[in-house]
Amino acid sequence: MAPVRYRTADVDGFKVFYREAGPADAPKLLLLHGFPSAGHMFRDLIPLLADRFHIVAPDLPGFGQSDMPPREKFDYTFENVARVIDRFTEVIGLDRFAVYAFDYGAPTGFRLAVRHPERITAIVSQNGNAYEEGLSEGWTPIKAYWEDPSQANRKALRAFLTPETTRWQYTHGAPDPTLVSPDGQNLDNFYLARPGADEVQLDLFGDYKSNVVLYPSFQQYFRTHKPPLLAVWGKNDPFFVPAGAEAFKRDNPRAIVRFLDAGHFALETHAREIAESIRDFLK
């Protein structure tokens, strides 16, 4: 089994923590996590792929072990998150790579693809959305904050930051919740409890509307460049519904869509199935 190395890159003064595994000369795969997690969410997936791929899994800015500078010094928008990760790939020498895009990792990775289509060899979307029909009714309170960024609407979003909600995100839709380890969710709750982390996450909730504005640009990229695309989707996701996965085929008819009997954090229960799909897709 290939060892996993834990590294830190200096990205123009911004510390980005990342996991790395696999042969340096193997095809490259960039794993991008989502809310409220970090690169640790790939702990089961990486060993299943590291024999064939050079894998890099960074913690996004403000998440995990990467820097979380004060909001006065860093504007927490998805554009800035993507800018740091874009530069990160250059710093560590990722010139051409496939992207695994999950949740927040999707608008991050898709921004990279639009910006540098020549660098992207393939896309694996695991509940990583790019279509408005993929947004469930669970987004209603967040959309209300987009329409009216009042303190009352911002305060209402704090319900998404509680330990109980984190556990619900991990277990909702899982066919057997007893198969979901408490370790990942407890670590996420530790990160969410850091001073200032709540305001960072509320800022990103508010800025998620910028991703929806860019959906047409992402879709144009899919139509124009037609990257090999695999959507492997937890069909019971309470936030990103199956219609978002099916929509990829509208702009990229060769896209492969596979549904799993899983929730949002599908890797918690279906890491082996997802790994097999990726290995077959990227061979």
UniProtKB/TrEMBL annotation:
It comes from the Bacteria. GO terms for molecular function: epoxide hydrolase activity. Residues 29-270 form the AB hydrolase-1 domain. PANTHER family: BLR6576 PROTEIN, HYDROLASE-RELATED. This is Pimeloyl-ACP methyl ester carboxylesterase. It comes from Bradyrhizobium erythrophlei.
